[in-house]
Amino acid sequence: MTERWVWISGWAISTKDFRRAATAWKPQAEHHFAPPSPRAVDQARALSPSHLGACTGFLSCQLKGRFKYLECSDLSAEMLKECAQHHPYLKLSIRDAWQKTSKPEYWNHLASASLLQWSPNPPRTLKNWQQLLRPGGYLWLVFYAKPSLPELESILKGEGVIHWRSPEKWRDLFIDAGFHLCRMEHQVRQYDYPSALHFWKSLHGTGASVRRKMKPSQMMRFFREYEREFTGKEGVYATWNFCRVQLRAPG
């Protein structure tokens, strides 16, 4: 039996936001994320992957050529179109990462980047993804965790982009879903922006948005407060916590 991968990466926001963010997501992916480590990839070199939420294909192309079969998918047709323009050799399909498939699938590996933190129901999502794996198959995840964007949260009084979960909370969710935790690591990094406006545009360019709408006067106040409170040597800064996880399905 040919072993297969599915690569599931992307910002899981509304389809409309996906369309708007298609051209902006690629630099975000290249700036923030890396594929599985060379050692981990070497261990799975004879296998084939599938990638849900392929976005612009930056991460998918890191796996292409190393495996016998690779499927890349995303909720947004615009994202896949952008992906196809840069990587026409990838097999693409439209999938909704939050919806349960009508019948079990038997992928050897599922991979996802910057997707899981957007799930409206992580326990259900993890169970759904587990049904896509063969017994003993692997789930590879890269996602943001708490503390991410604490500067933004502090100014907006907790009404930021998302309800962040700590790495410890995610670990509990993985175990409760029935996965074996093979490895998990996280790293907190700070990124600099010329101004609060540049930071805001970078955030919104990916399709992300805060949970409340702000009037122009509120936006100007936000920019002033952000620059007053969170300016460093290279401009304003924002903090992200990056998690990388390898899970094994039961069986």
Short description:
The protein is of the alpha/beta class. It has helices at 15-32, 38-43, 60-63, 77-86, 122-130, 150-155, 167-176, 196-205, 216-229, and strands at 5-7, 50-52, 70-74, 91-94, 107-113, 133-145, 180-193, 231-232, 235-248. The chain is 35% helix and 26% strand.
Tell me about this structure.
The protein has 251 residues and is of the alpha/beta class. The chain is built from 9 helices and 9 strands. It has helices at residues 15-32, 38-43, 60-63, 77-86, 122-130, 150-155, 167-176, 196-205, 216-229; strands at 5-7, 50-52, 70-74, 91-94, 107-113, 133-145, 180-193, 231-232, 235-248. Strands 2, 5, 6, 7, 8 and 9 form a 6-stranded mixed sheet that branches. The protein starts with a strand and ends with a strand. Residues 7-57 have low confidence and may be disordered.
